[in-house]
């Protein structure tokens, strides 16, 4: 039996085409190159950011580097979290309409338009946010201040549309195609037999989706949201253009006193930085690198775990 198996393995290896071997080698080399590049970026950020840890308060402008980075990290996480609260339900709903409700022709058109949103440059989103969205949402912010001003989120004063909430809306639109595309593909991979069995037992279309599609695609949807979160965390130009940042730590979403984000702060200050200021900005970039890496790694891990179970 073992002789037969070994001969079969040898014949399979010998029958392997040269193109398969070349492709496997190229794929392995590409994966190794990505790992080397990732390690190189991490080493560079660590070495260049280390002087900021040992720098004096006079050089940093704060008592220590943590005090400098914390407001930026807070603004980054707040903007990304708000964006996901808006983008995730909408993206999942759109993906569900494309995969199970809309006619095939309409679903193809809507899916293509959603995918095109991913090709729009960040600068265009920034221009849209500052020139169109900010003036349009200002009356809404003023209404929120009048009616819900007793809440810390809407204290105001709402005198400008360039707020952290507006920046989060822009981020939500930018993350929408990522979450929608992945969720749509996950929903379409639900076994047809499971769906037909649920319908045959008398379930409505929504009950069928709730009992078969959502459980099957739960891990994929979670990973899609986390990948969209990683996209929102690293956004630079759109936030730098839309947000009127002052570097404060606040949960007031409609005030002109807004926290900045790490990426936007680096983009705005790096051209004029010199000396230890460059190391401080690089250290903040290292913090963003670690946070983004952890979020994307978690998303990939959840997706891989769901595939193994499936």
TrEMBL record:
The chain crosses the membrane at residues 21-45, 65-98, 110-134, 160-179, 276-299. Residues 73-299 form the ABC transmembrane type-1 domain. Keywords: Cell membrane, Membrane, Phosphate transport, Transmembrane, Transmembrane helix, Transport. InterPro entries: MetI-like, MetI-like_sf, Phosphate_PstC, Phosphate_Transport_Permease. PROSITE patterns: ABC_TM1. It is a multi-pass membrane protein. It is found in: Cell membrane. Belongs to the binding-protein-dependent transport system permease family. CysTW subfamily. Part of the binding-protein-dependent transport system for phosphate; probably responsible for the translocation of the substrate across the membrane. PANTHER family: PHOSPHATE TRANSPORT SYSTEM PERMEASE PROTEIN PST, PHOSPHATE TRANSPORT SYSTEM PERMEASE PROTEIN PSTC. This is Phosphate transport system permease protein. The gene is pstC_1.
């Amino acid at each position: 039996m073992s002789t037969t198996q070994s001969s079969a393995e040898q014949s399979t290896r010998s029958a392997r085409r040269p193109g398969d071997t070349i492709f496997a080698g190229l794929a392995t080399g590409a994966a190794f190159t990505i790992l080397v590049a990732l390690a190189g970026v991490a080493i560079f950020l660590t070495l260049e950011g280390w002087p900021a840890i040992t720098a004096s308060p006079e050089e940093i402008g704060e008592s220590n580097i943590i005090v400098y980075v914390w407001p930026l990290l807070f603004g980054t996480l707040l903007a990304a979290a708000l964006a996901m609260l808006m983008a995730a339900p909408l993206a999942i709903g759109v993906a569900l309409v494309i995969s199970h409700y809309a006619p095939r022709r309409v679903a193809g058109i809507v899916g293509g338009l959603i995918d095109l949103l991913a090709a729009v440059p960040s600068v265009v989103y920034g221009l849209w946010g500052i020139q169109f969205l900010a003036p349009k949402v200002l009356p809404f912010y003023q209404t929120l201040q009048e009616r819900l001003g007793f809440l810390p989120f809407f204290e105001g004063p709402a005198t400008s549309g360039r707020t952290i909430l507006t920046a989060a809306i822009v981020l939500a639109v930018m993350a929408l195609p990522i979450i929608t595309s992945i969720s749509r593909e996950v929903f379409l991979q639900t076994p047809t037999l499971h769906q037909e069995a649920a319908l045959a037992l008398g379930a409505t279309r929504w009950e069928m989706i709730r009992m078969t599609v959502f459980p099957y695609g739960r891990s994929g949807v979670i990973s899609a949201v986390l990948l969209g979160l990683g996209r929102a965390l690293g956004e630079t130009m759109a936030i730098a253009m839309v947000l009127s940042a002052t570097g404060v730590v606040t949960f007031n979403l409609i005030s002109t006193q807004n926290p900045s984000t790490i990426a936007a702060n680096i983009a705005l200050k790096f051209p004029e930085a010199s000396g230890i200021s460059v190391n401080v900005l690089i250290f903040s970039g290292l913090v963003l690198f670690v946070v983004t890496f952890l979020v994307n790694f978690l998303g990939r891990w959840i997706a891989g775990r769901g595939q193994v179970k499936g």
